[in-house]
Design goal:
3-stranded antiparallel β-sheet, 55% helix, 567 residues, 5% strand, mainly alpha, single chain, 16 helices
């Protein structure tokens, strides 16, 4: 009477699912804030001469947590007394809250014990995260050296949280690529269905992500090479910023979280537009112009020397070239699979369009990263730092479009080649490759049979082999005798008759050996019949060679053993 029914239990768990989603969002925010707070407090404790109280350290941790979401901070303790904005977001620090929000929504939707709709889970998880964020904002505005600009809390902070939560919903659903919206024309639906819209979009997204990753990797490589070349300057700036161990660890951690920003700046440098070092200086491969406002920081030691660019500076153009080649390769890998038939490969139009979509995605990704990696570090000369997002995106689109689309078409042609008469590969469809391989395999098998390797013989055979390779063929007819003239029959019981009968038995055995390698459905090959008056002492006995029919279906015939062994 008191036991819960399954229906009531399911209803109760379904009603608590939104609350658990809200709790997951709040926990995700608490984990990010708590980890950053612990790190700041440890550095504050290890500092031999801290210039703030524990409350100041907590306010600093709260400001850094909001900065990781894209909020713009205001620094009040400046030398001039004028508040200075800080909008340069460390990208590696921003990865932590984005990943936590994404995981919270994904795990909430993957919870089978508390099923809920994706919309409710999205709203409740984002609501729980923003509730904690609102409390942090109220605390950060109460005092401290860092405060928050209110408008930056909506854009991009709230947008970053909702975007990460939406990515979690999409991941929980299996990363689908759906059809166009229902209000789209029917002809558009049909055309996209014929053109394999979903498959092409997935390929374009994959190639765009790969191209963007190559841009970032190439930029990181440029930064590493420049730091090695200017290692002495980087070391001097590192030592100049702090003398004690805690301060040097803080500088090192700050440099590490800014490494992705430096990689984006270097990628923009390789693309051509470059980046700004203040309002009066721009760094490009062609020239380093203006009067840069360079604060003492180890990563800024990788900036090239002032003046016109040289050959090592122009070599940075290999980064966008590699990105374009990557987009072409990822597109052709799906457009023309290895050893695919001609009818299974995409057309030139589909391949070019997919590569172009990948280039567009790479341009959008480069523009977003450029916008997120830059920002102000102060007023006046320090008001602009980093690449211009729209110039970086346009340059990435142009590079990858000009290299990716022709490269995809060339790779498609190369993968659809076929061998010519000399065995060299030439352009053609791959549909003839399976037939060609079958012909080559048959020729190799015929050569093995001619060499005596194709069929295993159980006894020596010295007879003549015909032109078709079959055993037991008739010997060639002499020129003096007509091929159509019948041979004289030997007398019964004579020596020639017994030899001919023995040869016939061996020929039948050869045929039976061939029947052994035949499939189970092949017909039974009987032995030769015993001629009347034949001598039983010749050592020859008629037999059946491995019958393939079921034993109970065999019928006894004269001179043949039956199921019971009776003759």
């Amino acid at each position: 009477m008191t036991e819960r029914s399954p229906s009531s239990s399911a209803e109760s768990t379904r009603s608590t699912a939104p609350l658990f989603a809200l709790l997951r969002g709040a926990i995700a925010a608490g984990l990010g804030l708590g980890s950053l707070t612990v790190l700041v407090l440890v550095l504050w404790i290890c500092s031999p001469d801290p210039d703030s109280s524990p409350g100041g350290a907590l306010h600093t941790a709260a400001g850094l947590w909001l900065l990781a979401h894209g909020a713009e901070l205001i620094r009040t303790d400046t030398l001039s007394g004028v508040p200075a904005p800080v909008g340069l977001v460390p990208l590696l620090l921003a990865v932590v809250p984005v990943w936590l929000v994404h995981r919270a929504v994904r795990d909430a939707l993957a919870d089978e014990e508390r099923p809920a709709s994706s919309t409710v889970t999205f709203l409740m998880a984002v609501g729980g995260y923003l509730l904690v964020g609102a409390a942090v904002v109220v605390y950060a505005r109460g005092g401290g050296a860092l405060s928050v600009r209110p408008m930056s809390l909506l854009l991009p902070s709230a947008v970053v949280v909702m975007g990460a939560a939406a990515a979690g919903v999409w991941t929980a659903a299996g990363c689908p690529v759906g059809p166009p919206p229902s209000w789209a024309p029917v002809r558009l639906h049909e055309a996209l269905a014929r053109d394999r819209f979903g498959e092409r979009v997935r390929t374009a997204c994959r190639s765009a992500a790969a191209g963007t990753a190559v841009l970032l990797g190439g930029g990181a490589l440029l930064v590493a090479v420049a730091l090695v070349r200017h290692a002495e300057s980087a070391q001097q700036s590192f030592v100049r910023l702090s003398d004690d161990g805690a301060g040097q660890v803080s500088v090192l951690l700050l440099a590490l979280v800014l490494v992705p920003n430096a990689a984006v700046w270097a990628a923009a440098y390789g693309l051509g537009p470059g980046f700004a070092l203040g309002t009066a200086s721009t760094v490009t491969p062609l020239a380093f112009s203006g009067s840069p406002a360079l604060p003492a920081f180890p990563l800024l030691a990788a900036v090239p020397a002032e003046g016109p660019g040289t050959a090592p500076n122009w070599a940075a153009g290999a980064v966008p070239v590699a990105a374009g080649v990557t987009i072409a390769w990822f597109t052709v890998r799906r457009a023309v699979p290895v050893r695919a038939a001609q009818e299974e490969a995409w057309s030139r139009r589909e391949t070019a369009l997919t590569a172009a979509l990948g280039a567009v995605g790479c341009g959008v990704g480069a523009a977003v990263l450029a916008a997120a990696s830059g920002g102000p570090l102060g007023t006046r000369a320090l008001a602009e730092f980093g690449p211009v997002w729209w110039l970086t995106g346009a340059a990435a689109l142009a590079w990858t479009m000009l290299i990716g689309v022709p490269g995809a078409l060339l790779l498609r042609t190369w993968r659809l080649r076929k061998p010519d008469e000399n065995g060299n590969e030439s352009e053609a469809g791959a549909g003839e490759r399976p037939a060609r391989e079958r012909r080559e395999q048959k020729e190799r098998q015929d050569r093995r049979e001619e060499d005596g390797e194709g069929r295993r013989r159980w006894w020596p055979w010295h007879g003549h082999r015909g032109d078709d390779g079959t055993a037991g063929a008739e010997p060639p007819v002499p020129d003096a005798v007509s091929a159509t003239a019948p041979a004289p029959a030997p007398e019964p019981g004579s020596e020639p008759e017994r030899k001919s009968r023995s040869n016939a038995g061996v020929g039948a055995g050869g045929a039976g050996g061939a029947a052994m390698s035949a499939p189970a459905s092949s017909a039974r090959v009987p032995g030769p019949a015993v001629a009347p008056g034949a001598d039983e002492d010749d050592g020859f006995e008629p037999y059946d060679f491995l019958p393939t029919d079921p034993w109970h279906e065999r019928t006894a015939r004269p001179g043949e053993a039956g199921p019971s062994g009776e003759r």
